[in-house]
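About this split. The held-out portion is used to measure sequence recovery: a designer receives only the structure tokens and must propose an amino acid at every position. Recovery is the fraction of positions where the proposal matches the reference. Here is one held-out target exactly as it appears in the evaluation file.
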């Protein structure tokens, strides 16, 4: 059994990034009892936006999904920090909200956010399935293509 979130991410052929520095006055995560609220993360690494621009203009659906996956990896970095890397403390993903910087007429917003949802399901199995909202927006911080936030249930 995989013990750490970092190892679980590596098992997916990916690398767990460092938690991005917040672009505002907020924390990357906040805990209330057994609920862990992960602040919205854009598709960035080392302070640089990986996918700057609009899905449906600068990026197609496939690239949009990769941008959402990059957001999910940043969320997993925050989750790992909150549970001190211990996978056994993660009960399930309860909810995800996804925001896609869209060009006019782009309607596949839910398919873009699947890039994040599919990673959580691959990592946590049925406990990675979650309630979700996917919204197309006019802009995001840093002109990022995607931003995702989530709520997890954890063992205290």
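Reference sequence for scoring:
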């Amino acid at each position: 059994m995989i013990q750490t979130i970092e190892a679980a991410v590596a098992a997916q052929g990916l690398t767990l990034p460092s938690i991005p520095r917040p672009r505002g006055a907020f924390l990357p995560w906040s805990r209330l009892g057994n609920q862990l609220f992960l602040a919205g993360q854009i598709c960035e690494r080392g302070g640089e936006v990986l996918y700057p621009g609009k899905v449906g203009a600068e990026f197609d659906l496939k690239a949009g999904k990769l941008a959402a996956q990059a957001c999910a990896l940043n969320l997993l970095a925050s989750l790992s920090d909150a549970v001190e890397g211990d996978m056994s403390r993660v009960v399930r993903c309860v909810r995800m909200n996804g925001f896609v910087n869209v060009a006019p007429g782009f309607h596949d917003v839910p398919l873009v956010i699947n890039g994040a949802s599919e990673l959580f399901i691959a990592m946590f199995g049925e406990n990675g399935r979650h309630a979700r909202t996917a919204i197309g927006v006019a802009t995001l911080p840093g002109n990022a293509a995607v931003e995702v936030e989530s709520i997890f249930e954890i063992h205290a």
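Annotator remark: Residues 5-9+35-154 form a domain with the 60s Ribosomal Protein L30; Chain: A; fold (CATH 3.30.1330.40).
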